[in-house]
Amino acid sequence: MKNNSETSAKSLKREEMVKFAFDTFYKNGFHATGVDTVMEGTGISKRTLYKHFGSKEGLILATIDYYRTNMHEIILRYINSDPNAKPVDKMLRIFDFLIERAEEGPFNGCFVMNAKTEYTNKGNEIEASCDAYTSGIQTLIDVALKEANLPNHNELVVQIMMLFEGAIIRSKVTRSGDTMKMAKNAARMLCEYK
């Protein structure tokens, strides 16, 4: 029978592998990063890696889940940080979040959007996991806009999500938060127009 400290140590090692793989995939890309790189960085054997994740795709799924869980909580806290904000202003804070991240330093885009791009038509589970993350972001926007009671609410949610995703992609090219600021202004105008 395994004791709690042994189980905890295995869980910690798995978490360490996920965090290292996340950082490496985010910096170098998914196809450009081999399993050997993750093994070298964490000091684990290929057998241990496959025991925990089954395959490289299993490891990628674990990193997407790690990103989705952490990012959802961070964004939710961020957009709700001002309890007096009006619903539209709360929703617009999602763009402020992006602007701050872009201006902090090297911006590699959205981890999940990067995975989706590299695995389109190549990995159904990876695509589905990416779609779940995107759906979560869209739900955050949806909740804020429902509170605002704007007409054509569903259409507006999709339009703002397009601005959000487009700003992320464009900012990878420009290496600047300016694109995100323009997307925020466009989102504000859409809400005022409705």
Number of helices: 9
Distance between the termini: 62 Å
Considering the protein shown, what is the CATH homologous superfamily?
Tetracycline Repressor, domain 2
Instruction: Please describe the biggest sheet, giving its number of strands, its sense, and whether it closes into a barrel.
Output: none
**What is the CATH topology classification name?**
Tetracycline Repressor, domain 2
Taken as a percent bin, the fraction of beta residues is under 5%
CATH classification class: Mainly Alpha
Rg of Cα set: 19 Å
Question: Uncertain spans, ≥5 residues at pLDDT below 50?
Answer: none
Estimate the global geometry from the Cα principal axes. elongated
Q: What is the structural class? A: mainly alpha
Total count of domains: 1
Order of helices and strands: HHHHHHHHH
Mean pLDDT: 88
GO molecular function: DNA binding
Pfam families: TetR_C_13_2, TetR_N
Domain HTH tetR-type: 11-71
InterPro entries: Homeodomain-like_sf (IPR009057), HTH_TetR (IPR001647), Tet_transcr_reg_TetR-rel_C_sf (IPR036271), YxaF_TetR_C (IPR054156)
